[in-house]
Amino acid sequence: MSADKSTSWSYAEGLPVEDDVLRRARERSHELGLFAVTHGVAAALTVLAASSKAQTAVEVGTGAGVSGVALLRGLGPRAVLTTIDPDVDHLKAAREAFIESGSPANRTRTISGRGQDVLPRLTDAAYDLVFIDADKPSYPDYVEQGIRLLKSGGLLVINDALDKDRVSDPAIRETSTVVLRKVGKMVRENDSLISAMLPTGDGLLLAVKR
Ligand SMILES: C[S@@+](CC[C@H](N)C(=O)[O-])C[C@H]1O[C@@H](n2cnc3c(N)ncnc32)[C@H](O)[C@@H]1O
């Protein structure tokens, strides 16, 4: 391999040109001490939402709405995004971003609560897309719930799946790394899923439910 992969990664992350709506959502994320999805992940989410033609999407980990705006921009005009976060300040910032993006209020359902409590209350096989970007220790539960929530043909998207390049090194046993390694294995070994790992951002694990 001739070129440095990290140079290509930085190049790819630098390609998406973001507008003022996403820039302001990123500023609010920063002020709240949150790590929003990277530029590359935001662009990928818009493409994935558009290509999946999803009508119903769920996000765990709203933050200040960077990923939510990216998803809404790919989803169809009648699609609804349900997004879950226990922090009311994060949800308030996200609502501002959704309004600024011009998305009608009835296209987003913001739910204040923990993913562990809210996801089990959502209907089986009723969603086309599930995006996970929240507390890492709960990822295995969110993946299980996500698979239950997805329709056949639905798409599961897991952010930070390479955990800052630590997942690939078996000697690293930090809690978040161990959890994300487990999540990768769960997804790969689940016969009901077709999966792929993209190196975008901090690793974007994709899986389609058969
Ligand atoms: C990395 S930020 C999400 C960033 C957001 N996806 C974006 O790109 O703008 C993680 C979010 O997960 C939320 N969170 C923490 N624990 C959670 C839980 N148990 N259930 C759902 N969300 C949780 C945090 O409040 C925080 O807003």
TrEMBL record:
One Pfam family matching this protein: Methyltransf_3
Keywords: Methyltransferase, S-adenosyl-L-methionine, Transferase
CDD domains documented for this protein: AdoMet_MTases
InterPro entries given in the database record: Cation-dep_OMT (IPR050362), SAM-dependent_MTases_sf (IPR029063), SAM_O-MeTrfase (IPR002935)
Record bears the keyword Transcription: no
UniProt record, GO biological process: methylation
Entry keyword annotation includes Transferase: yes
GO function term, MF aspect, one: S-adenosylmethionine-dependent methyltransferase activity
PANTHER family: O-METHYLTRANSFERASE RV1220C-RELATED (PTHR10509:SF85), O-METHYLTRANSFERASE-RELATED (PTHR10509)
Protein known as: Methyltransferase
Protein's organism: Arthrobacter livingstonensis
Organism ancestry: Bacteria, Bacillati, Actinomycetota, Actinomycetes, Micrococcales
